[in-house]
UniProtKB/TrEMBL annotation:
InterPro entries: Competence_DNA_uptake, RibonucZ/Hydroxyglut_hydro
Superkingdom: Bacteria
Name the record gives this protein: Metallo-beta-lactamase domain-containing protein
Coiled-coil positions: none
Transmembrane segments: none
Length: 515
């Protein structure tokens, strides 16, 4: 393995195989794949983003990385793939960073198709939730802790890079623009750029529909495993039982749906958190013709003295006033905003486009799972692909997987545990037989940065340990140099063969996969 500075040479894949370049953008995803083509290398870019602040921990920048992409591809990407609309997957895609780069096709998940009725319904629901969350965040601004927690998730949905987060005013501007019009979010602008630059059009990918050809590389076949078109699966976010790698885990629940309806209802009608026919607006409750006196006597109104005597702890012969302020929930329900923010973030992750690249019919497989969560994973095995007179199953593809892009920075909810015999797709399905001896994983995580985010556990130790064991140490991580010596349990000869296929640079890792 050699360590070199980035140079202008084109990225050249091995004959019949592929080269995977894992860019070290920070805590985020950016992969450049090179395949042998009919007239030269065929390049596929999968995502390009990072969490603001994380590149500083490893001394890289999006500008340097996109300059490297331009050099490595000769300025032309044959297929640009965006797996899902999250900041750490798209915020490196700007006019400035992508100047001088042309794109053949852009591939997006079916959820981005404006002509798909299911996608449109999901988009409307999500935009309503986002507007409600933005309104709630505005009203909780004085609570710095809660507002800060919400901002971490809002940033993922809205986008923006290091320059936007240089001061509070920049982020406030992003929030204001998104609240005015969700289409103005930085994430959507990045998606728009790749749509508009696609010389040969945009392809909206649906799972299990067809075995796709990679333009210019006839020996490579592409299988779309997710996201599912089953809305229940898209809402199925967290592993259960033995699907989970046990460790510290936060669960997202359906409470987000309740909150979204509540906050949007309040903004529209002044009535939280129930439908209007079941509630009286707080602002006019005390004056209501039928119930005003009851509210005044038993709940009071803001600023109203309740007659409570702190010296005796009593009001007359009662221990607490009938109209004590604590009897009113007022805006306490807004505090579920953090739960909604987490729920929305998980929903976006679960709608990830998941692709498997096959190197020749029946050959090795490269699996890019983006940030897919439980419902997406479970759906992979729901159907098979027609392949001439036969079929191909997800179990077969995962068994032939030699490279796994680990889901969501190694988070607890984005890689399912299991054994080869498990009914659900899992790590246990991957890399069997001769493919197991080559199985390698890539984790896009900067641990030191993650620990500044209320201790985000990326990567979860239990998952990384399982990957290290399964891959005999062949695990890349954004912030970690490839070890010079073989880990315990790996032979020196095997490690030498692995290192011969690795090139390490300040901006990326290159990994060659033979055909």
């Amino acid at each position: 393995m050699s360590e070199t500075e980035t140079v202008g040479a084109r990225l050249q894949p091995p004959a019949g195989g592929a080269t995977v370049r894992m860019y070290r953008t920070g805590h985020g995803d950016c992969f450049l794949l090179a395949f042998p083509g009919e007239t030269g290398p065929v390049y596929v870019l999968i995502d390009c983003g990072y969490k603001p602040g994380s590149p500083r921990f490893i001394d890289t920048s999006a500008r340097e990385i996109t300059a490297s992409i331009r050099q490595a591809t000769g300025g032309h990407i044959h297929v640009a793939v965006i797996t899902h609309e999250h900041q750490d997957h798209v915020n490196g895609i700007t006019d400035e960073n992508f100047a001088g780069i042309t794109i053949g096709e852009t591939w997006l998940a079916w959820t981005e198709d404006r002509n798909d009725p299911i996608a449109n319904r999901l988009r409307t629901q999500f935009d309503d939730q986002l507007l409600g969350l933005l309104a709630a965040r505005e009203r909780l601004a004085a609570d710095e802790v809660r507002a800060g927690n919400i901002d971490r998730y809002l940033a993922a949905e809205i986008g923006g890079g290091d320059d936007d987060f240089a001061d509070d005013g920049g982020f406030a501007g992003l929030l204001a623009a998104a609240k005015s019009d969700p289409a103005q979010s930085r994430n959507k602008q990045s998606m728009k750029l790749l749509r508009e630059r696609a010389e040969n059009g945009v392809k909206f990918i649906r799972p299990h529909e067809e075995i796709m050809a990679l333009p210019g590389a006839p020996d490579v076949r592409v299988f779309a495993l997710g996201p599912p078109r089953d809305e229940e699966r898209l809402e199925d976010l967290d592993p259960v039982g033995d699907e989970e790698f046990h460790g510290l885990a936060l669960s997202s629940s359906s409470a987000g749906n309740y909150f979204a309806a509540a906050v949007c209802g309040e903004d529209a009608h002044g009535v939280p958190p129930f439908a209007g026919r079941y509630a009286v607006p707080l602002a006019s409750a005390a004056e209501h013709a039928g119930f005003g006196e009851h509210f005044r006597l038993h709940y009071g109104v803001e600023g109203d003295a309740d007659g409570f005597d702190p010296a005796t702890g009593r009001r007359g012969d009662k221990e607490a006033a009938d109209n004590a302020a604590w009897r009113r929930i007022d805006h306490e329900w807004l505090y579920s905003a953090e739960r909604l923010a987490l729920h929305m973030s998980s929903q976006t992750n679960n709608a990830s486009l998941v692709l498997a690249f096959e190197l020749g019919k029946g050959g090795k497989v490269l699996l890019f799972a983006a940030d897919a969560q439980r419902g997406n994973w479970v759906s992979w095995g729901s159907k098979e692909w027609k392949d001439g007179a036969g079929t191909v199953s997800a179990r077969e593809l995962l068994a032939r997987t030699v490279l796994y892009k680990v889901g969501h920075h190694g988070s607890h909810n984005a890689t399912l545990n299991g054994v080869p015999a498990s009914e659900h797709p899992s790590l246990g399905w991957m890399g069997h037989g001769e493919h197991g001896r080559e199985f390698t994983a890539m984790i896009t995580a900067v641990r030191a940065w993650a620990e500044t985010q209320n201790g985000w556990d990326h990567p979860l130790k239990a998952i990384k340990d399982a990957l290290l064991k399964k891959a005999s140490g062949r695990v890349f991580q954004t912030d970690t140099p490839v070890p010079a010596d073989p880990p315990a349990g790996a032979s020196a000869a095997e490690w030498k063969r692995f290192r011969e296929r690795v090139r390490e640079d300040r901006l990326y890792f290159d990994y060659d996969i033979d055909g």
